[in-house]
């Protein structure tokens, strides 16, 4: 899975991104998760975690910011693999 080169802004564009992923990857699963104390989602393909999304800001029941992590070196806590470079957590606030 490739990451977006620019921020994806707007509910319609984010929904299209996820629908496109789900069309390309038939075995994709989205599941609610606690991401270091923040509500979030895990993205799995064929049972393997390929990304974690932290829902950073929620206002009036709408998500206003997501922090995606798809770098395998940062997903070791979700995959059970050992980190290759010692980098851990979310990009925001040292997570």
Task: Explain the overall architecture.
By secondary structure, the chain is an alpha+beta fold. The chain has helices spanning 11-24, 76-79, and strands spanning 28-35, 38-45, 48-59, 62-69. It has a 4-stranded antiparallel beta sheet, with no helix packed on it.
Question: Care to give the gist of this entry?
Answer:
The protein is α+β, with helices and mostly antiparallel strands and 95 residues long. It contains two helices and four strands, in the order αββββα.
Features:
single chain, 95 residues, alpha+beta, 4-stranded antiparallel beta sheet, 2 helices, 19% helix, disordered C terminus
Summarize the topology.
Layout (H helix, E strand, L loop, with lengths): L10 H14 L3 E8 L2 E8 L2 E12 L2 E8 L6 H4 L16
Antiparallel strand pairs: 1-2, 2-3, 3-4
Proportion in helices: 10-25%
Shape: globular
Strands ordered across the widest β-sheet: 1-2-3-4
Mean pLDDT equals 78
Distance between the termini: 22 Å
The sequence of SSEs as H and E is: HEEEEH
Structural class determined from secondary elements: alpha+beta
Low-pLDDT runs of 5+ residues are 91-95
Quote the beta fraction. Answer: 35-45%
The total count of helices amounts to 2
Radius of gyration: 13 Å
Largest sheet: 4 strands, antiparallel
């Amino acid at each position: 899975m490739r990451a977006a080169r620019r921020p994806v802004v707007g509910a319609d564009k984010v929904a299209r991104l996820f629908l496109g992923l789900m069309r390309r990857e038939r075995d994709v699963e989205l599941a609610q998760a606690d991401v270091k104390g923040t509500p979030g989602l895990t993205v799995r393909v064929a049972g393997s975690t390929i990304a974690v999304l932290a829902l950073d800001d929620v206002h009036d029941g709408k998500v206003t910011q997501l922090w995606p992590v798809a770098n395998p070196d940062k997903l070791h806590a979700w995959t059970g693999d050992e980190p290759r470079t010692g980098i851990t957590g979310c990009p925001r606030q040292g997570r």
